[in-house]
Amino acid sequence: MESIHTRRTIRQYCGRNIEPELLEKLLSEAARTQTMGNLQLYSVVVTRSDAGKAALAPAHFNQPMVKSAPVVLTICADFRRTSTWAECRQATPGYDNVLSFMNAATDALLYTQTFCNLAEEAGLGICFLGTTIYQPHAIIEALQLPQLVFPVATLTVGWPAEEPPLSDRLPLASFVHQETYHDPTPEDIDLFYAEKEALEVNQEFVRINNKETLAQIFTDIRYTKSDNEALSLTFTEALKRQGFIH
Amino acid sequence: MESIHTRRTIRQYCGRNIEPELLEKLLSEAARTQTMGNLQLYSVVVTRSDAGKAALAPAHFNQPMVKSAPVVLTICADFRRTSTWAECRQATPGYDNVLSFMNAATDALLYTQTFCNLAEEAGLGICFLGTTIYQPHAIIEALQLPQLVFPVATLTVGWPAEEPPLSDRLPLASFVHQETYHDPTPEDIDLFYAEKEALEVNQEFVRINNKETLAQIFTDIRYTKSDNEALSLTFTEALKRQGFIH
Question: Do the interacting molecules here have an ipTM over 0.90?
Answer without folding.
Answer: yes
